[in-house]
């Protein structure tokens, strides 16, 4: 157990509910590993109390907080400044409190790109097919487009994909039912749907059509190896698991609050992954 001093830096995660979050475990691991005088705590905050709670945390000397469902929009509205990427996609996941001001950052996109790079994949290398049209898809599509990648999106509800394309110039949309046909034209496949998550049906896509050099990235991380990633493994297709995005998105936030740039390595991954195994 870490004993705090009176100068400890405190951060945490705000959500409603927040009990499922793995963030206290992963930040706690780094705090202990680096011997930091600090803590990262779960902060269940009802939506109606969000602004009061955030201003209270800032007044109480917190270094900042992560923000998860359902507070992402409310958090955006409270920020005095927002980083470029957060502003472009209208969503942030990290608040840093500095001199009575709230700065909002989007580190999810950083996490997505870093996870690919840490696995030897250049996100800018080739055309990408993204499945899904929720918040994660929107952030990932915007990031890849900014890198100059040709991005195609397929979503069960086509209208949601069309709405994204209206906001993100250059984004191509195809029908969900034609995803198998589009696969050979892409070197990166990203699943942002909930398909393959524990308790959900698996994602159906014909990996036998994969182009040589395809990388499959599933952002689902419960289970660690989704049916999509298992199918890629049996075919010898390069895969990047979703847990890495969660681990990497935490790096810039930890650095901003605690002043140390932590490393995502295998020991850390195993520590967080151990909590994801079925009980
Ligand atoms: P996020 O967590 O990224 O914000 P979300 O808004 O919860 O995502 O959306 C989940 C995604 O999974 C959506 O793209 C959803 O498709 P719809 O827009 O058609 O709802 C997709 N999804 C969920 N269940 C699905 C299913 N059974 N078949 C295909 N897509 C599905």
Observed structural traits:
single chain; 279 residues; alpha/beta; Rossmann fold; six-stranded mixed beta sheet; 12 strands; 37% helix; globular; binds 2'-monophosphoadenosine-5'-diphosphate
Q: Strand pairing plus helix content: what structural class?
A: alpha/beta
Q: Termini, distance in Å?
A: 24 Å
For the record, the count of structural domains works out to 2
Q: What sequence of helices (H) and strands (E) makes up the elements?
A: EHEHEHEHEEHEHEHEHEEHEHH
Based on the structure given, which CATH architecture of the largest domain is correct? 3-Layer(aba) Sandwich
Ligands bound to this protein structure: 2'-monophosphoadenosine-5'-diphosphate
Estimated share of beta-strand residues: 15-25%
Low-confidence regions? none
Radius of gyration: 19 Å
Number of E strands? 12
With strands numbered from the N-terminus, the spatial order across the biggest sheet is 2-1-3-5-6-4
Overall mean pLDDT: 96
CATH H-tier superfamily of the largest domain: NAD(P)-binding Rossmann-like Domain
Query: In which range does the helix fraction lie?
Result: 25-40%
CATH topology of the largest domain: Rossmann fold
Q: Major beta sheet, specifics?
A: 6 strands, mixed
What is the CATH first-level class name of the largest domain? Alpha Beta
Number of helices: 11
